[in-house]
Amino acid sequence: MTETPLIALLAALGSALAHAAMTLFTKQARDMLVFRAVSMTICAGLLSPVLVLAPFPPWEAWRFLLLGASIMWAFNMLMISAMTRGQMNLVYPVMRGAAPALAGLFALVILDEPLSPLAVTGLALASAALIAFAWPERGGAPKAAALAFALSAAVMTAAYTVNDASGVRAAGSAVSYLAWLFVLLAASLTVTALVRRGRDFLRLARPELRRAALSSGFNITTYGLLLYALSIAPVAPVAAVRETSIVFGAILGALVLREPFGLRRAALAAVLAGALALLHAG
Question: Which of 233, 226, 219, 276 is nearest to 96 (CA)?
Fold first, then answer.
């Protein structure tokens, strides 16, 4: 696969927009852990017919499914921690943008993999933009904890993208892989929420049902389109296009949540998205 089909790039773009919308619903939830558990359970229920109608994933795909579900559980917990501590238009660009930037930096420093001048330029710009996001606003304090969780979530994003690119190809069916992945993730998040919230789980879940049902559509869309794109195209260009969610998320945070956006964060989101495109193109 030396060329990236246009349909894969369009799928990645749709995935980016749906991911930003899904994150917006999560940020608005009263209890984000319960909300994610309910939303994932609804996703699993909607995809349950696939479990019967689609071919059962071959055994070589299950190691990717189990690992992918574990990584996505960790991503959800870290995302919730970041969103609890910081504004969406601060932590979301860092969560989405740091993953490819960290991968390029690790490849250069640890693996001694050479980068082209274009890739080095993209890496430098992406790193500068991430540092600028972390810089405290005038008269404000740095959001160290929020950004630490956001960076950790970015590592999980990079990990599950690579893992699931292999998994969906081993499964031979993006739909079957998606359905089983959501079943495993729904089970892990629901158990976590039940352990942490105990008898309050049902009381906390009731007011989240309507929005969780709406969010589940975006959950299935974002990951379904991503898996489809990964099944027909190389990981790097798909990941690069999906990072346009940085811009979508920042805009939604400003328009819907009324978070202070300003020219500074608008420019940083655009610079970060462009820098990631340079990094992957290089």
Answer: 276
